[in-house]
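From the methods appendix. Each design record in this collection lists the discretized structure first, followed by the designed amino acid sequence. Records were kept in a plain field format so they could be parsed without special tools. The example shown here is representative of the layout used throughout.

RECORD:
C-ALPHA CELLS (280 positions):
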C-alpha cells in the first residue's frame, strides 16, 4: 500500500511498543500484530528518541492479521480518532487465495496529544485498537526514573496537606523553569518554579489541603512557560482522607505546691501530631 496522504484534520497515527510508552489494546488481543518505525521528519533518518514520537516525525505503522485470525472476513478498515474526530486512514479487501493481511501506512505526526487507531474487520465487526501520544517538539522535560508522583504526609486526615512530588529531567539544551500544579475538586495549588539546567534532573513538589474526608483524586501536571513537556508528566493519584483526628483530655492534676498542671491528653487513631495545651 502506498503512503497515506494526510489531510489537515487527519493528524497522526503511531504505536508505542516499549516499556516507556503508553499502549492500550482493545478487542481480541490475538487479532492483530502491530509494529512501527519512527523517523525524523526533517531528515528522514531513524529517530534517536527511542519510544518517543515528537511533533513532525514520520511514523510507519504496520499491522498484520494472520490467516488463522481472519476467519470469514472479507474486508477491513483502518480508522484514527483524535479530539473526538474520526477519519478513515485506509481500507481494502482480503485476498481469497492468501487471507493473511499485511499492510503498512506511513503517517505524519502533525498534532500533539492522545490518538487512537482502530482496525475493523467485516462482516464479523471485530475490532482492535491502540492508544498513543505524540509529544511537542522540541521536548524539554521528561520523567526522570520511575513514572508518576510520590505522595507524602499519609495517613491523611481532613484538613491535612498532601505533599506531591515529581522527579523530572531536562533533555533540552537550555536552562528552564518548571513547576508542579495540583488540583482536587475545587481546590488547587501551584508549586514554586524550579530552575533546571540542561542535562540535569530536579524534584518538583507542591502541597494541597484536603478538607473533605473520603476517597479523593489529585490531578497533577508539570508545566512551565515556553517549554515542551512530555505527556507522561501529568496524571491522577488517589488518596484516602480520613475524618479529622480528635483530642480527649484524660486527666488533669494540679499540684498546688509547685503551681503546675499535669495534663494527659489522648489523640485518636491516625498520624502522630504535636499537641499544644494552654492553661489560663
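DESIGN:
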Amino acid at each position: 500500500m502506498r503512503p497515506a496522504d494526510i489531510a489537515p484534520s487527519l493528524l497522526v497515527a503511531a504505536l508505542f511498543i516499549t516499556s516507556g510508552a503508553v499502549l492500550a489494546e482493545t478487542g481480541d488481543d490475538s487479532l492483530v500484530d502491530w509494529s512501527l518505525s519512527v523517523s525524523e521528519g526533517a531528515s528522514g533518518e531513524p529517530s534517536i528518541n527511542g519510544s518517543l514520537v515528537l511533533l513532525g516525525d514520520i511514523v510507519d505503522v504496520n499491522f498484520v492479521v494472520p490467516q488463522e485470525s481472519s476467519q470469514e472476513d472479507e474486508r477491513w478498515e483502518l480508522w484514527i480518532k483524535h479530539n473526538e474526530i474520526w477519519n478513515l486512514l485506509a481500507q481494502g479487501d482480503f485476498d481469497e487465495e492468501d487471507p493473511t493481511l499485511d499492510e503498512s501506512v506511513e503517517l505524519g505526526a502533525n498534532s500533539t496529544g492522545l490518538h487512537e487507531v482502530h482496525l475493523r474487520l467485516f462482516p464479523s465487526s471485530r475490532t482492535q485498537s491502540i492508544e498513543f501520544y505524540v509529544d511537542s517538539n522540541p521536548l524539554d522535560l521528561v520523567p526522570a526514573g520511575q513514572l508518576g508522583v510520590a505522595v507524602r504526609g499519609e495517613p491523611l486526615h481532613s484538613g491535612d496537606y498532601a505533599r506531591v512530588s515529581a522527579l523530572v529531567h531536562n533533555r533540552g539544551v537550555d536552562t528552564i523553569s518548571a513547576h508542579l500544579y495540583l488540583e482536587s475538586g475545587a481546590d488547587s495549588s501551584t508549586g514554586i518554579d524550579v530552575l533546571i539546567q540542561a542535562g540535569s534532573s530536579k524534584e518538583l513538589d507542591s502541597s494541597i489541603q484536603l478538607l473533605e474526608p473520603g476517597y479523593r483524586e489529585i490531578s497533577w501536571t508539570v508545566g512551565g512557560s515556553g517549554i515542551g513537556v512530555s505527556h507522561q508528566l501529568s496524571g491522577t493519584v488517589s488518596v484516602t482522607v480520613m475524618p479529622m483526628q480528635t483530642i480527649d483530655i484524660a486527666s488533669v492534676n494540679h499540684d498546688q505546691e509547685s503551681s503546675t498542671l499535669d495534663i494527659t491528653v489522648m489523640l485518636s487513631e491516625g498520624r502522630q501530631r504535636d499537641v499544644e495545651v494552654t492553661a489560663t
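APPENDIX NOTE: The chain has one helix and 20 strands.
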